[in-house]
Design brief:
- The protein is an alpha+beta fold.
- 49% of the residues are buried.
- The strands form 10 sheets. The protein has an 8-stranded antiparallel sheet.
- The termini are far apart.
- β30, α10 and β31 form a beta-alpha-beta unit.
- The radius of gyration is 28 Å and the shape is globular.
Length: 800
């Protein structure tokens, strides 16, 4: 007779055979309520559920109920405002209800089920056990539904959707990982654990686990990704707004030989000469330069600094150089690594204060930790006094006028290093190390000069790294995937709570710069910010023309870009956005590769081969207009786009309003004489232009201004409005040029009640007039002044 085994029998046999799984068991009761925290005693463990907000829950597990103290590094908020909630024992379940969701706490085996208020299941623990231990590993098991797809976990040079994949979070010199992911079913999970966590989305149930530490995770209800990112950054912090110039272009210079060609920094005079050439000869957009140092002086910015070495030249007067750079509207960052060389005066101080990471024998680790660095030791950045000590050695450069640092990391923290302050081994602290390194430098700059925004181009971050902007790739590129890999790294990092990631052109190390990738020149302009290394001019005429054209286009788009940068700082949403972030309910966006949104309205899909001239682009719902030729594409389809070598596909969402600066900008706000407002009539035509001084932290005190633009369309008329700016920041006077796209016919244009005359010649001089280009179907309206007043434009006879 054939024997029939129940699922519980099979589970019992499996457990007996392997003996490694141990779940929290069943609820033993009674549950205990302490303000916003509920404790659930179980047969094998104690579970605590903290109700942080109506849609944020902190879930912890401990064998004996001895929970570890709250760490001070990653999470910035443990004391949440009180939440109104209700707890009710319903027999097999304990029901916890807030104003947004309900938790069904299953008693046997203990499990957590998240539902919306309509009763729809959002996320559920596995039916045979959720949290527990797999041998020594802590583990959590969640039901994998047919509809759920997973996004996040940091800087991954690959497709965004991780369904069917396994990943881990262990920072390397190449990748920043973040133990946070979102599921399209409508939730996010932040695994609050610094060990090497692993995520398995290949089977049901899916799991996340770690070899040590405590099971401690935050469960966030959306259901939309935008809300989840906002709530996640309430837990780990939001990014300050970087200075406006940080979204421009940079150069990086150091002593380097590439394919037999020597590029020499040539000291202070060489750097100044190069920037003058960019300003006066090359017609090159440029806002900053990253200066490399090496040898015993690297990192330590003491008075009288004079770097000198064969082929390097000298820096006899740093303040003089910074003053001259600033006079040319160029900002300067100084490269650094997280250690102290033995040959420096600072090393003795660190030894005496026990500020270095130790090896197992209690002796400070000594090794090479940076580019051409002499041997030295790594700072124990978990120690707040060590971080302050490190920061104080930046004060000379802050006082001289430096605009920030570029925090490199040429060697990861070695295995088995020990922190004399936190007592953590590398297994637990490695992921934290770079976060705290970036914090130490950023805090020093902000504390020393609280009136001037700075940036730290940190190479590697961790959860919470967004608090110290901006993430700079420097050498952390994906070899052989220098555009699409970096692009996906930026997109995935944005889905993980870090909104600003620049792209550094390190392919000059891999290919002859005389044959630089032309497509690369396009992409560098169409991301958060771009940095060229070693040389400004590649010698490839087409590549340099692309760099100049798209660089200037980026600077024209700066009013739009900076507005969304402010939104990123305010909400946690990234500047470069995955398609799924805006169109979460469209499965077509889950597999969209190598394309993204800048803000909400610009869809950008660069190519990554100089010999490829077509690419597929997935368009979500709505109409999309080609930036270059005004071709209109319908959404919910994949198109094959033809892109000659001088074109990077840019598509505008119908309904967009795009404010743009004048052409020819050599640096941010080079020309502030007028504002171009491009309007693509459609549904939801609104844009709120954000402006501040771009330099100080006064925006945190409310010193900014918002101007609202809108467009309402009927069959034969358009009504365009510009509000009076609201806020404490005084907008400088400027002219306005409105460009209405897809307009075939106009009878009249009336501005604030006055009928305007059609005059193409006056348009060039920005006088009060209008002109329609019937071939391009564009209507141009020129209005002198009006920056601080309301404007109402009525356009009649459109498209009759």
């Amino acid at each position: 007779m054939r024997k029939i085994f129940s699922f519980s029998t099979i589970l019992f046999l499996f457990t007996c055979s392997y003996g490694s799984w141990e779940y929290v068991g069943g609820f033993k009761g009674p549950y205990l309520i302490d303000n916003s925290e509920i404790t659930f005693p179980c047969s094998n463990a104690v579970v605590k559920i903290g109700i942080c907000a109506d849609d944020i829950f902190r879930i912890r597990m401990s064998r004996e109920g001895n929970f570890v103290p709250d760490e001070p590094y990653v999470v910035i908020q443990y004391d949440w405002p009180g939440v109104d909630y209700n707890v009710e024992d319903q027999g097999d379940f304990i029901l916890v209800t807030t104003r947004r969701v309900e938790l069904n706490i299953r008693k046997e085996p203990f499990g957590i089920i998240l539902k919306d208020l309509s009763g729809r299941v959002i996320l559920s623990d596995a039916s045979d056990g959720g949290m527990g231990w797999d041998g020594e590993r802590i583990i959590c098991r969640k039901v994998l539904t047919e509809s759920d797809h997973f996004f996040g976990l940091g800087q991954r040079y690959e497709k965004s959707d991780m369904r069917g994949e396994t990943r881990d979070c262990w920072v390397t010199r190449e990748e920043t990982h973040v133990p946070f992911f979102m599921g399209t079913d409508g939730y996010g999970i932040f695994f609050h654990n610094t060990w090497r966590s692993e995520y398995d989305f290949t089977k049901n149930p899916y799991t996340f686990s770690a070899p040590g530490g405590e099971m401690d995770y935050y469960l966030i209800y959306g259901p939309d990704f935008k809300h989840i990112l906002g709530q996640y950054t309430e837990i780990t912090g939001k990014s300050p707004l970087p200075p406006k110039w940080a979204f421009g272009f940079f150069l990086s210079k150091w002593d380097e030989k590439v394919n037999g060609i020597q590029y020499i920094q040539d000291g202070q005079d060489g750097l100044l000469s190069m920037v003058r050439s960019a300003r006066e000869m090359w017609d090159w957009p440029l806002d900053g330069i990253r200066v490399h140092s090496k040898g015993c002086d690297q990192n330590f910015y003491a008075g009288g600094l004079a770097w000198a070495d064969d082929g390097w030249g000298e820096f006899p007067n740093i303040k003089e150089m910074l003053d001259e750079m600033h006079a040319m509207n160029c900002h300067v960052l100084f490269w650094e690594t997280p250690g102290v060389p033995q040959c420096s005066d600072m090393y003795k101080e660190g030894m005496e204060s026990n500020y270095f990471l130790l090896e197992e024998d209690g002796i400070p680790w000594i090794g090479e930790y940076g580019y051409t660095a002499p041997h030295g030791s790594l700072v124990d950045f978990s120690n707040p006094e060590a971080r302050r000590w490190w920061g104080e050695h930046h004060y000379f450069m802050v006082d001289a006028g430096s605009d920030g640092v570029a925090g490199d990391w040429h060697s990861v923290v070695e295995d088995n290093l020990f922190s004399p302050y936190s007592k953590m081994l590398s297994d637990e602290s490695r992921n934290l190390f770079s976060l705290l390194f970036n914090q130490a430098s950023y805090d020093a700059y902000r504390e020393r000069n609280p009136e001037k925004r700075c940036i730290t181009f940190g190479l590697i971050y961790w959860a919470g790294g967004q608090r110290y902007p901006m993430h700079g790739t420097q050498d952390s590129h994906h070899s052989g995937m220098n555009i699409e890999g970096e692009m996906m790294g930026c997109i995935n990092l944005g889905l993980s709570g870090i909104p600003f990631r620049i792209y550094t052109d390190n392919v000059t190390r891999e290919i002859d710069p005389r044959n630089s990738n032309t497509r690369l020149s396009q992409y560098m302009a169409l991301t958060v910010a771009g940095e060229r290394t070693l040389t400004a001019l590649s010698g490839n005429k087409v590549a340099d023309q692309n760099y100049r054209f798209y660089g200037k286009l980026k600077y024209q788009l700066m009013p739009y870009v900076y507005t969304y940068a402010r939104e990123a700082a305010r909400t946690g949403l990234p500047l470069v956005r995955s398609m799924v972030l805006e169109y979460q309910n469209d499965p077509g966006t889950y597999s969209a590769y190598g394309q993204y949104l800048m803000g909400e309205d610009l869809l950008i899909a660069p190519l990554w081969s100089d010999t490829t001239f077509y690419r597929d682009i997935y368009l979500p719902e709505g109409e999309w207009i080609d930036f270059f030729d005004e071709t209109v594409y319908q959404g919910m389809q994949t198109i094959s786009y033809h892109a000659p070598i001088d074109r990077a596909p840019i598509l505008i969402r119908s309904g967009a309003i795009i404010p743009m600066a004048p052409e020819g900008q050599r640096y941010v706000d080079d020309d502030k004489s007028h504002l171009n407002i491009h309007i693509y009539p459609g549904d939801n035509n609104t844009f709120e232009l954000y402006e501040d001084d771009g330099v100080s932290y006064d925006y945190e005190k409310g010193v900014y201004s918002v101007t609202r633009f809108s467009c309402e369309q009927t069959r034969s008329e358009l009504l365009v409005k510009k509000s009076k700016p609201e806020g404490k920041y005084n907008i400088p006077e400027r002219d306005h040029i409105f460009c209405i796209h897809k307009i075939r016919k106009v009878n009249s244009v009336i501005v604030n009640g006055a009928v305007l005359a059609e005059n193409r010649d006056k348009l060039k001089d920005r006088e009060l007039c209008w002109f329609i280009d019937h071939q391009l179907q564009k209507l141009w309206i020129s209005i002198p002044g009006g920056a601080n007043q309301e404007l109402t434009i009525r356009i009649t006879g459109t498209n009759e």
